[in-house]
Amino acid sequence: MVEDQRKIIHIDMDAFYASVEQRDNPELRGKPIAVGGNPDSRGVVATCSYEARRFGIHSAMSSARAYRLCPHVVFVRPRFDIYQKVSQQIREIFLSYTDLVEPLSLDEAYLDVTTNKANIQSATWVAQNICQDIRQRTMLTASAGVSYNKFLAKIASDVNKPAGLTVVTPDQAAPFIAQLPIRRFHGVGRVTEKKMKALGILTGADLRTHSLLELQQQFGKAGQYYFNIARGVDLRPVVPNRIRKSIGKETTLDEDITDIDQMMTIIGDLSQRVGALLESQQTSGMTLTLKVKYADFQIVTRSFSHEKPIETAADILEIAGGLLKKTDAGERAVRLLGVTVSHLTIDICAVESLQMDLPFV
Fold first, then answer.
1. Rounded to the nearest 5 degrees, what angle is found at the Cα of 279, between the Cα atoms of 275 and 283?
2. Which of 115, 182, 227, 285 is 20 to 30 Å from 3 by CA-CA measure?
3. CATH of domain 174-229
4. 214 a catalytic residue
């Protein structure tokens, strides 16, 4: 099987923003911290430390609820310029092992190490070395998943967080997928999860019992994807410097909201993230799109094309704020917000990955 020959690593930094803040401020170490707006500003948690997660706090949760869950949580304003610099350091480590690096965000990436600059035959050893290098250079921890495709590598990286390493070989794939709760499958959101559970699909094993035709009838074009991943099939290569048509971020809220100020705080956080990605990719865009999902799951989008490139978080926030006024947000409760910059001014050429048969362990 061709895809069995690939050796893919997914690296995911552990509580990235929060870990950077704890690293840079010793007084925050060992404490529950939330990066984002404080409860008085009707903000939202961008990410939080593992100490905070023990209280049930998580990203996209309103700051007010985070405070209720943990009254002694420390709120820290995000410093996206610092996170971007650290991300660049991590990217340089990746590139010292392979040119086949596909960044997903500031804190995670796929790497194809089938052939690598260190001439290490075991992908597991490469992952161990990368995590060690990250810790030595940045004083931060990362978790890694190693497998023969992107789907399994990504899931594996989340199994033993923080500072974990999980390997899923081709022989281990079937039982590994079978026991996975369906919510753990990348691409299965809340609505799809609810529909799958109604069909009796609770795990990967359940998903595999359904034919391709059944899944296509229930989920349309996505049916082919679900059919494949239930069998451990994911033929997507790691594509560095891929041609990107857009750069965006969205967040599903912990609770439906009607407060416009709180929505603007969330949009401000999304704008900072997208702005940082634009800068890291050294690009900008001509069109901004705001995505709003109402409490009844209806999705609307509003777009604005600018005569000048949209390239900073401030640009994004200003335009997105105007677009929000063109929706029914506020009059109707909102459960998801997203911002996307498209018609990028610089396209990045795609590179095909190479494949060889090398051992995992």
1. 100
2. 182
3. 1.10.150.20
4. no
